[in-house]
Amino acid sequence: MNKIYYGFKGKGVFDEKGKKLNLVNSLSFKIKLSVDTPDRKLRKLIWEMDFGTKSSVMSTGSYVFNGYNMLRGGYDFMLAYKLELYDVDAISFLAKEMGHKVVYFSRNDLEGLYKVLICKPSVYDKVFDKISECIKNYEGKKNEK
Fold first, then answer.
1. Is 118:80 a contact under the CB 8 Å cutoff?
2. Taking 60 as the threshold, does the pLDDT of residue 2 lie above it?
3. SS3 39
4. Is the model's pTM score more than 0.70?
5. Domains along the chain with CATH numbers
6. pLDDT at 59
7. Quick one: which of 48, 33, 36, 58 has its CA closest to 113?
8. Are 124 and 107 in contact (CB under 8 A)?
9. In terms of Cα–Cα distance, which of 117, 104, 120 is closest to 61?
10. Do the Cβ atoms of 116 and 78 come closer than 8 Å?
C-alpha cells in the first residue's frame, strides 16, 4: 500500500494521518512527485530518476481521487499511468483549473486506460522529456518480451 505525504510551503511535510515529519533539512523537498500506477516496475524506475536537483525527494502517491490534495499540498508533478478514464479526467480537470500543465501520453480507449502527466509549469521543462523517455523505453522493453 502506498503512503501519502503532504507538503505545505513553510509549514513542513505531513503523513496521511496529519503527523508532521521531522526533517533535518526541509529544503530537501525540491521536486516532489506522485506516481499512480498498478505497474510496480515503472513506478520504481520513475522514483529512482534524477531530475537534476541534488536534493529532490520523491514521495509515493496514492489513488487519483487524492490528486487534488496532493497538487494543492505542494507536489510538483504527478504521473497517472494506465488508470481509468473517469479518474484521469477528474484530476486533469482540477489540475487545469489550478494552472498546471496536463499532457496525455496516450488515450487507449480500447482498454479504457489513460496515461497522463500533470505538472506545475515551473518544473515542466525539467521532468517532461525524462518521464516520456522513461515510459517509451519501458514500453519498448515490455513489447520485446
1. yes
2. no
3. coil
4. no
5. 5-144 (3.40.190.80)
6. 47
7. 36
8. no
9. 117
10. no
Among 28-32, 112-116, 127-131, name the one with the lowest average pLDDT: 28-32
* One-letter amino acid of 8: F
Rounded to 10°, the helix 40-47/121-144 angle is 140
**% of the chain at pLDDT higher than 90:** 0
| Pairing of β 77-84 and β 113-119 | antiparallel
pLDDT digits (tens, 9 = 90+) for 46-69: 777 776 554 344 444 444 445 555
CB 56 within 8 A of CB 50: yes
Look at the block and give the residue holding cell 515551473.
122
**69 vs 72: CA distance, rounded Å:** 5
Question: How is residue 139 annotated by DSSP?
Answer: H
> Whose CA is closest to 23, among 41, 40, 39, 11?
11
Q: Taking 60 as the threshold, does the pLDDT of residue 9 lie above it? A: no
CA angle 63, 65, 67 (to 5 degrees): 80
Is 60 in contact with 4 (CB distance < 8 Å)?
yes
